[in-house]
Write a structure and sequence with these properties.
5-stranded antiparallel beta sheet, about 10% helix, elongated
Length: about 180
Amino acid sequence: MGTPPVMRTWAPGDALDSATLNSQLRDAVNFALTTPRCCAVKSIGSSQTITTATYTVLGLDAEQYDTDGMHAPSVNNSRVYAQTPGWYQITARCSFQTSATGNRRGVAVRLNAAGSWSGGTFLSDMYASPMTGIWTGVTATFSYQLSAGDYVEMFGYQDSGGTIGVQTSLAGYNALTVTWSAPL
């Protein structure tokens, strides 16, 4: 778990020593360089389908990066956990295979939902109309306060009247990115 440093207020005559420089400069720079962040993705070629009119949690079996032990690709892989409390920038991206049938493709994010659309707390969603001859990608981005141990999950939605797969021909088409941005 990363710990944001607490910066002191300096007064005239304060002495500079190695302990102070380490806690006030080195630790702050190290935290900035390793800010808690994770990008969990569905790997190339891994398949998952979304049934019509059903919010379906997306399994994310790989990572592009994870600096704070926020995601486990093999256990509860739909979840990205906050290890460090604070404000987070959260981006969920779901890309659907080509199908112009129906009216909406969507992505939604829930807090502590245990893989269930009715579980936890709704945080955000975004929808787009499908296009003919091309896959449809939908992205939702927002900020939210997370406590240590909270986790977010993303859900895909479509209303084609059938089943549509998520697009997995390139890495990152389906991703949940969670980045620490400020202390509580």
